[in-house]
Specification:
Shape of chain A: elongated
Order of helices and strands of chain A: HHHHHHHHHHH
Structural class of chain A: mainly alpha
Radius of gyration of chain A: 24 Å
Number of helices of chain B: 13
Number of strands of chain B: 0
Radius of gyration of chain B: 24 Å
Oligomer: heterotrimer
Distance between the termini of chain B: 9 Å
Helix content of chain B: over 70%
Helix content of chain A: 55-70%
Largest interface: A-B, 44 and 45 residues
Chains: A mainly alpha, B mainly alpha, C alpha/beta
Largest sheet of chain B: none
Distance between the termini of chain A: 39 Å
Number of strands of chain A: 0
Amino acid sequence: MPSDASLAPTATAPAPPGPLRAFWRAFRENRGAVLGLAVVSFILFVAIFANVLAPYSPIEQFRGFSKLPPFWVEGSDPKFLLGTDAVGRDMLSRLMYGARVSLFIGLSVMVVSMVVGVALGLAAAFFGGIVDVIIIRVMDLIMAIPSLVLAILIIAIIGPNLTNTIVAVTIVGLPRYVRLVRASALTELTKDYVTAAKVSGVGKFRLMTKTVLPNCLAPLIVQAALGLSDAILEAAGLGFLGLGAQPPTPEWGSMLADTRDLMLSHPWVMAFPGLAILVTVLAINLMGDGLRDALDPRLRRS
Amino acid sequence: MIRFFLKRLALTIPTFIALMFITFVMLRLVPGDPIEVRRGERGISPERLAQLRHDMGLDQPLWKQFLDYANALLHGDFGTSIVSKSPVLHEFLTLFPATLELTITAMIFAIVLGIPAGVIAASRRGGVYDQTLMGLALTGYSMPIFWWGLILVLVMSNTLHLTPVSGRVDLIKFYYQPVTGFMLIDSILSGQKGAFMDAVRHLILPMIVLGTVPLAVIARMTRSSMLEVLEEDYVRTARAKGLSWTRIVGVHALRNALIPVVTVIGLQVGGLLAGAVLTETIFSWPGVGKWLIESINRRDYPALQGGIMLIATIVILVNLFIDMLYGLINPRIRHAK
Amino acid sequence: MSGKNGALLEIENLTVEFKTGSGYFRAVDGVTIKVDKGEVLAIVGESGSGKSVSMLAVMGLLPWTAKVTADKMLFEGIDILGMSANERRRIIGKDIAMIFQEPMSSLNPCFTVGFQIMEALKEHLDLDKAQRKARAIELLGLVGIPSPEQRLKAYPHQLSGGMSQRVMIAMAIACSPKLLIADEPTTALDVTIQAQILELLVRLQRETGMGLVLITHSMGVVAETAERVSVQYAGQKVEEQVVKNLFRDPHHPYTAALLSALPERARGRKLPSIPGVVPGQFDRPAGCLFAPRCQLATELCRTTKPPRIDGALCHYPLHDGVPQNHPGKEKAA
């Protein structure tokens, strides 16, 4: 028998885990991330099944039952668990449907940002020259104008509604994605495997999508997760200023705006929508952190 | 060093041109021709409208309008507010110190608390301090700041009566001429007793609200940068020299760890101005952010246009400054060609 | 027990394990090292042999994920394993010093060379500023850096690899250590500089009489500089001998394979190499760790851990190239 190492394995330690399992194990180690995942799943569930779960319609106004406190405060009505707002709409239902709105906005922004960001970033990296310069300058410009200010400007032009909120928030967040993809792609382009592919005659488009893109994915995924939480916050900010989804659509940010006058006498009307935003965004950020730690081996704690 | 500065400055010129173009285009796109909306006004004849249109230069071809606009900007004419009838630049400069005071104090708050928090968390990695501080940081930057502001007002102002609800100064008790525009300084200069404390009490909540997100971001960034630096070879050398942990963290690691933190601080400036818009709205702080929102609501488009142009210019200049600072701290860049 | 001048460093049965996401990884497995005063010991082995880790354990430079256990770890007779961190700090950098493989990244880019050397002096010695500066200049001169006064103000990125390593050496010997550990000091340097640095180390050792532990993967370096050599493989010490004897008559098959892979010793047209790879965390053999790659491995080698005979960790140690008590080539593999 030849004297190389092709002997029957005499391993005394377990075999190394495959990539997916290794990822899950690393992710699992971070208790915060798992908690985040659980909370996000719950909120997602509520958002999807709001029709079934919510006790009332979010836009139905119950005259005579307005400004009721939540069930643990005196003067409440057990029919409306978390109380009602100024015009008698059930808080709990509005929160549930609001989850749907906020998550929808957030996810839409995330998806569109990724698609456009990847396209622009790859274009800038691959075509270089004038294309690159233009793209980068436009992104710099977007970053030069404070995000909310730019979003407000865009809404001022195209009008305040749900879809336009998505457009505005996407545009404002685009530079982050484009720069990330462009930087990643540029780094990969210097590597030997790309040169090898080019030499073997791989066309530009295929080179972009099949060869380089998969290697840029890890930071992109992390950015997308964190971008989701930023998108929800920006959208809520626009809603608060009255520039987002218009009433009676239950959007958490605009729910907070309605309540400023009631703040002193009926603090819970203000507390709940804000808490909803906080919990959602916090959970997403926890997950995002866990995702980043699990995907980036440098930061892993062993 | 000078060359470095000039090179960076030159690079901003195309950005400025693009900025002018964008603001020009955007405002032309806004629905609602400012002349047309006045058509129904009493006593306005079509000739008068045409005259107004001519006065505002709106009957010229677009490219000429743009050149006129650019020309005006370069001469410091940022337009005239429809609402207040005074030059936009003048309005902006009157209100800007308020925003500046708020953003500067918020940034100082964020840096003074954020960097030590990050350093402590990193040097006692995994311990109680680390987890608590980072948990707080994460919460801080997951909060919608308009809600956070409302909560603080509810607790501090309405319940505990520690701070006033809005504004910069209690006009009933104090009045003094603005010298610098900074209440903190002017109150001291005025010599009135209690004026300074009054200014502080008005400033403190908006400062905390605006500074919370930068604080959280800086703390996290400092921690992660510190952790990376602590893995570096030269830290190992420092340990091999028998230096104390305090010295290693404070002297050897910190300077290197701060480099990316400075970049992050620079990036926060734009975010601060965005946050200022919301903060000023909540606290009725008479600054540029609140003015911008009002301009939109009142359809004062020249004000909006000029205001955005000015804010963006400031952000670009601040970024330039931060670039310079970065070159100062990192000797490698300084000595590079 | 003590060598010709008395034992400086005595380590017995040192084991270092690293906590990883998937269990513990044993980087150093029951290693015994002894260095006498004024002696030059070389530790040689491939990447993954654990040669650096044992010395890092002595210096207390391992990360928090490392678990260090030993029967004995004494420096000048004092137990350093059980010492508190603060006590250890008084010895590290002063009586025991270490230099590393990548001199370019081992110096802090934000501070001048002079600052970093004088810092070491300030920490351990009682000198005033002028004296520290004088000593720093003296040290830079000792390591062969021209115009030392000007160099004090230089930043690390302005120095070449060879210069940086000289500065590292200057910093290490600043407080006249009794033991200097050099972890692959020349691996990252140009070939021409390598010889200069080694020569410098050897000269300094002779002039100061300090103990020198030289960690390397190159047998050539061992031949030129060391008195005794310890060969490590996969975390274990597989052989230790006086250098001259080891080269003439290696006892362990791994050592023999290493030597025969030296270009100088090549006889045929093909350079003999050792097939296979060093076992990692997940494929540690049950018996002898070298068995999967050993030409002479038998069933006994694969199943039973080898004893230590004649300083070599082997069932059939070689004497003049002949394995002792070996059942013969037909039974092998």
